[in-house]
Design goal:
alpha+beta; 28% helix; 33% strand; four-stranded antiparallel β-sheet; Nuclear Transport Factor 2, Chain: A; 174 residues
Length: 174
């Protein structure tokens, strides 16, 4: 039995080869992928996403730098990595009287960029209702009305020695 289901909106065609096997064709990447592989990849992205959300929660909500450094890739001594993370959070002003705290961490985008590497675009919502924003660097004067994405932060996680770790990301931008 061969059944064809076309997902025109998402650009994927799903073929039912027999009662148990599904094959998809993704028009964006022009690849044939077994449906089971797609499900496995989605599960992997969810797993890695939860590691990132835990890391950011430890940093910005709980201030548990020892737990955060466990999920962070560093090439220095653990103590130095912990101090670096703590400095980056303190540099924003978190913990100062009157400074809003992170209320919610939103994952806006997620993508597998290599076999064991994922990128996530994050947005921080503050207790005062604002989004955490970083400004222009080095005297740059932005045009009015242009969305520069200064309320979005890119983080990368990679598998290192069997575990996913945060390897790249903005922990501090002025």
């Amino acid at each position: 039995m061969v059944v064809i289901f076309a997902g025109v909106v998402i650009g994927i065609v799903l073929f039912c080869i027999n009662d148990e096997e599904f094959l998809t064709f993704d028009f964006k990447t022009e690849e044939r992928v077994m449906a089971e592989e797609l499900l496995d990849e989605r599960e992997k992205i969810k797993e890695v996403e939860s590691i990132l959300v835990d890391f950011l929660g430890y940093l910005y909500k709980k201030r548990d730098y020892d737990r955060a450094v466990d999920l962070y890739f560093y090439e220095t001594e653990r103590k130095d990595a912990r101090e670096s993370l703590e400095w980056s959070v303190d540099s924003y002003g978190f913990g100062r009287p009157g400074f809003p705290e992170v209320e919610e961490i939103r994952v806006l985008e997620k993508e597998k960029v290599a076999e064991e590497s994922f990128e996530f675009v994050i947005q921080f919502l503050m207790t005062n209702g604002d989004k955490l924003k970083h400004g222009p660097c080095c005297g740059y004067i932005p045009e009015e009305g242009v969305d520069y994405g200064w309320d979005r932060y890119l983080f990368t996680l990679e598998k290192i020695e069997g575990d996913y770790k945060v390897t790249g990301g903005v922990t501090y931008i002025p």
